[in-house]
Design a protein that fits this description.
There is one protein chain. This protein is of the alpha+beta class. Helix content is 29%, strand content 15%. The protein has a three-stranded antiparallel sheet, with no helix packed on it. The termini are close together. It comes from Aphanomyces astaci.
Length: 154
């Protein structure tokens, strides 16, 4: 791979750096794993904080699944919908069969899937020391400048 060296490096391709200025946003592709290093104010005697917001940008040229094409999957929503539509008109056994066929997900099941997905996306500590390249980004917290480290793995 072009730009990757085995001697004296983390065996990764350097992806560069960017200055994050007030009122702007740093965006990078979702296929890059990242880790934000601990935060410290430039002047610890003054108050300050860091906010990191994660959101996903969608290319309007590519079709994606959305709630316009996928029905609700929450068990509680399906329960309320069936009860309000068929309460008193269908036997409870029929409603139970419809609920079973709906393939609804409970809140606990959804949390388990989310936890599993987060574990899969989290970088392994064993590989992280070989596959990371530190990229320093600067951003402003109020009138102070503070340093933000993001580790991008390519």
């Amino acid at each position: 791979v072009y730009g990757v060296s085995r001697e004296g490096t983390d065996n990764t391709q350097v992806v560069g750096h960017i200055e994050a200025r007030t009122g702007r946003c740093v965006v990078f592709p979702n296929y890059m794993q990242h880790r934000v290093a601990p935060f410290q104010l430039a002047d610890p005697t003054r108050p300050g904080h860091r906010k990191i917001i994660c959101f996903f940008l969608i290319n309007p040229q590519h079709s994606i699944l959305s709630t316009a094409n996928v029905p609700p999957q929450q068990e509680s929503w399906i329960q309320r919908s069936l009860d309000s539509t068929f309460a008193g008109t269908l036997p409870e056994e029929a409603l139970d069969s419809i609920r079973a066929m709906a393939g609804a997900t409970t809140h606990d099941q959804a949390k388990d899937v989310m936890t599993q997905l987060m574990q899969e996306r989290k970088g392994s500590d064993v590989f992280a020391k070989f596959l990371t390249e530190e990229v320093s980004l600067w951003y402003v917290v109020g009138p102070r400048r503070s340093r933000l480290h993001i580790y991008l793995m390519g």
